[in-house]
Design goal:
- The structure is a single chain.
- It is built from six helices and six strands; from the N terminus they run ββββββαααααα.
- It has 194 residues and is mainly alpha-helical.
- The protein has one domain.
């Protein structure tokens, strides 16, 4: 057994340009990840992926979910998040993502930071905060632009604060240890109005 699990299959997709958000892609073939506990995480053929589990505001720091050594983990995580019915299901998907990042070749410090990003994504989802579906920031041209800028700045600030804290943690740090830091630094609610 591989220490951090392993991937099976090959990611083959096609763009779904007639859908919103226009970054949606559909899997042409099945893909899967087996985690260190021998749990299988499937991304069945025809699954829709879009990297939405990491808030788009954080992409400027971590990169697009379609590039880099966390791409494989991102595909499996997108499907797991879509299938999650409870907060606990989402948490399990995020834990899987951490180990899948390591299995995909992310250095441990990078995997820790990516884990922080998906946990912030879960936090944002829980707050029912919306983000733009495209890189074109329409809110810039509308009244109230400061609100969206504030949201993104706040997310980046939280990400930097937490990411800086966990970046140099030991390589064998578990998601549970990371959660202790994350949970202490994310408020239960926030007012994004300016």
């Amino acid at each position: 057994m591989y220490k951090n699990g392993f991937f099976s299959g090959k990611i083959i997709t096609h763009w779904l340009t007639d859908q919103n958000p226009n970054r949606n892609m559909q899997l042409v073939d099945s893909y899967s990840y087996t985690d260190p506990n021998n749990n299988n995480w499937d991304a069945p053929m025809d699954s829709i992926i879009n990297g939405a589990s990491i808030p788009q505001a954080l992409w400027t720091v971590v990169g697009s979910p379609y590039t880099g050594n966390y791409r494989n983990a991102s595909v499996i995580h997108d499907v797991a998040c879509d299938q999650a019915k409870t907060k606990e299901d989402r948490k399990k998907a995020d834990n899987m993502f951490y180990y899948a990042c390591l299995a995909g070749g992310c250095p441990p410090n990078q995997a820790r930071v990516f884990y922080v990003a998906v946990r912030i994504g879960a936090w944002v989802d829980a707050l029912i905060t919306s983000s733009s579906d495209t890189t074109f920031d329409e809110s810039f041209f509308k009244p109230g632009m400061e609100t969206e800028k504030f949201k993104n700045a706040y997310l980046l600030d939280r990400f930097k604060d937490i990411g800086t804290t966990v970046y140099d943690y030991p390589d064998d740090t578990t998601p549970e240890k990371l959660d202790a830091v994350i949970d202490s630094k994310l408020p239960l609610a926030i007012d994004f109005s300016c």
